[in-house]
Amino acid sequence: MKNEGIEGTERFESPEKGRGLLAVRHFAVGELVFACPAYSYVLTVNERGAHCEHCFTRKEDLFKCGKCKQAHYCNVDCQRGDWPMHKLECVAMCAYGENWCPSETVRLVARIIVKQRVTTERTLSERLLLLKEFESHLDKMDNEKQEMNQADIAALRYFYSKHISDLPDEQALTELFTQVNCNGFTIEDEELSHLGSAVFPDVALMNHSCDPNVIVTYKGTVAEVRAVQEINPGEEICDSYIDLLYPTEDRRERLLDSYFFSCQCTECTSRSKDKAKMEIRKLSAPPEAEEISSMVCYAKNVIEEFRRAKHYKTPSELLEMCELSLEKMGAIFADTNVYMLHMMYQAMGVCLYMQDWDGAMSYGEKIVQPYSSSVLSRCDE
Ligand SMILES: [Zn+2]
Ligand SMILES: [Zn+2]
Ligand SMILES: [Zn+2]
Q1: What is the pLDDT of residues 192-229, one digit of tens each?
Q2: What's one GO MF term for it (predicted)?
Q3: Which domain holds residue 332?
Q4: Are residues 59 and 170 both part of a single domain?
């Protein structure tokens, strides 16, 4: 493919910002800036049977791969289209049975390696940025990340070496995994539940802002970048890499830890929305600053603890964790405080899982109001 770029946009390089994407014409709110097919993608294991592995369509009457009985497809065309990737796993899943458990990143990287071998030209996903050009930030990896990287490489060799001849050497794999960790995307459906992982090189070209002018949504395995603010020629086009619900300090920690930069956007400088996000309960005696900061600390720990607990605790134990933390935080935080909202959202998820509809509804009602007002405030600006 000849490199024709993306109409209305331009790649730029600058000493301060590195590279990024620039608008060269006007985009109205809601307008599609560009669409980018996935370079490689993988459906998450939990959604097997509900979505087609090839096009991600959600359907009732998908049919199974006759060999592994795990992958599901719309029709023979989807099955054929997926075979170059599915064949890496089909036989292995039968052979390993329940012991087949590579992580989603490992599965995605295996697909990228195979795709790179059969692709000789620039793909439609790389009109402005090649996958090979992804930043890896190898020098910024701490021990914990290095260990995870090693574990991923070991799993890739263990589960895939039979089906991918001469895997790249250790150094090349380390680089590829770090590139995918910094530039990979998770594909979500309209309800924001996780469908899979993918790489979209042109989408990865955009820099982050906590006050983004575009958002990324997905249609099947295609990413769509749409303007959520008016964009004028000469302005940089930025999306957000993270959940913007949280206050400045949390966002900056998250960006530094996962993407290795400290955000200098207008929202991080003005911190204009932090006060609303950190709403304190109206009490006759307002809490001391120290009480508030120790509660924030508690909230962050409990969120992290809950994230881990999801893998080994029972639903009723998880619900108890939510209730206890909400009671404790509720002494200081208002119901609209983001940490309260986070735990209520988790509690609602557990209730739904336990088919406790009344419980889910009561949390849902408390969440909906602040969430919708935060959406409104975005559009009003
Ligand atoms: Zn399909
Ligand atoms: Zn199969
Ligand atoms: Zn920021």
Answers
A1: 778 999 999 999 999 999 999 999 999 999 999 999 99
A2: zinc ion binding
A3: 274-380
A4: yes
